[in-house]
Amino acid sequence: MAADTKKGSGGNNQLLMTLLKGRTLIVLAILFVFFSLAAPNFFNVDSLLSVAKHVALYGILAIGMTYVIITGGIDLSVGAVVGFCGMLAGGFLQEGLTLPMFGVTIYMSVPVVVLVTLVIGVLLGVVNGLIITKLGVTPFIATLGTMYVWRGFANIRSNGATFNDIAGKAGLGNTGFSFFSSSVFGIVPMGVVILVIFAVIAGLVLNKTAFGWHVLAIGGNTNAARLSGIKVDKSLIIVYAISGLCSAMVGIITTSQLMAAHPATGNSWEMNAIAASVLGGTSMAGGVGTIIGTIEGAFVIGVINDGMTMMGVTEFWQQVIRGLVIIVAVVIDQVQRNIQARMALQARNESKNEEKAAATA
């Protein structure tokens, strides 16, 4: 009877674990059904394309956040980097780059603007990584501080104004920024294509390279990783640089979609990135996470946000619901880790019992 009870308990745990691992897809299916009934316009081409555009932004941002959270860290500055990099790109296109010492203004082509903006995003991430690794500041405090710094610089760049003339001029050779908001293969938004590219590369790096294994090892046990020869500080700096790169890319895409750059762009988007990552199975304790899970989480966040907007839910209540989503996601993550720990303990006990039984026989 005791053995049957244990088997039953183990079976229940296995079933619960299966449901928890598939929770994102289950929630996504429920949301699609709910919003299809509650918001009549939700399930049409235009609405779904709008959701796809937002999912692309949240997904790219969450890819960088996933790397950070896997290491046991957090990056609260990603939304501010989106705004700052968007302002840089918009400023380069509208005003050019003025060099007072030479009395000239340089107008860069769109590829150069994009490259410079991405490099700056990487450097902002490196700054976060250096503060954390070299100054010993915890990731939460370090990125909270730089969040305000980057947001301040975004406002300083234009004194709080908007760059609204970023289409460029043919004579200056800086036209074509709308490429990042265009559609390919008929109706697929360019942002979605970029998301797929980022996701494939990030997934391969995480699962198939030594660097990816180092990231997972650092999140699992930083001291053990260091003792095993992993260059923890270097890896962490690269991880935050990846987060900065993803944020800069989102700033470019968003600015292209709006064809304007505003310093408040990306405000609070770090919450969407964290929620998407955790909903997708990335553990806040570190050491666990997948890129495909994060993309699924980004779909959940995008569907929730757009669905509530179509239902006429006010932004205030949307903030409440987004906060609850993050809390629920963290609680579920904790439940899953507790069940995994119990299952591991039960497996060890059963193994010991089998060894004792074999020795007795």
Please characterize this protein's 3D structure.
This protein is mainly alpha-helical and 361 residues long. The protein has one domain (42-342): ABC transporter involved in vitamin B12 uptake, BtuC (Orthogonal Bundle). The protein is built from 13 helices and four strands. The chain has a two-stranded antiparallel sheet with strand order 1-2. Strands 3-4 form a two-stranded antiparallel sheet. It is globular, with a radius of gyration of 23 Å. One of its GO terms (cellular component) is plasma membrane. One of its GO terms (molecular function) is transmembrane transporter activity.
Number of E-state strands = 4
CATH-level-2 architecture: Orthogonal Bundle
Into which percentage range does the β-strand content fall? under 5%
Summarize model confidence as the mean pLDDT. 89
Shape: globular
Q: Quickly give the structural class.
A: mainly alpha
The largest sheet has its strands arranged as 1-2
Helix and strand pattern: HHHHEEHHEEHHHHHHH
Number of domains: 1
Query: Are there runs of 5+ residues with pLDDT below 50, and where?
Result: none
The count of helical stretches stands at 13
Rg computed from alpha carbons, rounded to a whole number of angstroms: 23 Å
Top-tier CATH class:
Mainly Alpha
Helix content: over 70%
